[in-house]
Write a structure and sequence with these properties.
Length: about 290
Amino acid sequence: MSPISSLPLTRPGQGRGLLDVLDRRFLLKLIVRKELRVRYRGSVLGMAWTYVKPAVQFAVYFFAMGVIMAQRESVPNFAVYLFSGIVVMNFFGEGFLNATRSILWNAPLINKIYLPRELFPVASLWVSAVHFFPQFLVLLAAALVSGWRPTLIELAAGALGFVIVAMLSLGLGLLFGAVNVYFRDAENLVELIVMVATWASPVLYPWILVYDNLPRWLWLVYMSNPLTAAVQLFHYAFWFGSTGRPELLPNGRPPMSPDMWGWAGLALAVSLALVVVGQLVFRRLEGRFAQEL
């Protein structure tokens, strides 16, 4: 008996999910480069759009919330507060939305050869991280100019917030990316989720407004949102230190919500659970991707 004939039979087209992505890191890099080249093909500004879009967002929100709604009077260094939240939401929105579209965008490649389909949502998340980095540099510069001198625990909070958003985007991207192959309405639903998410987290306003105006049960639902915890972790990491770390803000309320670390732990657990659920649904549905596409 030849060595080949003694090998166990395996079902074609079945892999180990996200573990296969780790084994094909070089292929993942190629897909990321391809997406970046396609994204900016024929563009005059190119990667400069990663600065232009957040700058316009910041200007609009700062004028509306900071000036008209006078949030800058009750929140010191409101510019840093606002931009640290915008950075988080841009990373989540781009990663989630592009991961949802990634299977459809790569339909010609999926129909020609077999490769782990999870490569495409992961590559989309990687591209969003590439776009996150320039915005993050601007945030660092603004925080330093404002007097930010971070502690180790504040830096750890920023890293934890990034991990939560990355896992949340990947889990939801796997889930909706697989569903979007069968029901194209999923993409429109994701756009609505991303739009609502900005207002369902303390990006444009302080958390205390929600605490004061919502019933306690709805407050608990609000805090159970992983993005709420991630935004607060970024505020703690890059804004709180630039304010001199006061116990109370000018409005007499604490700068950070109670049990912030407990909510952060819950957010991490929820994000990890969504990665598991997203992977299970993705593997369940990927068998007919080529036929549906």
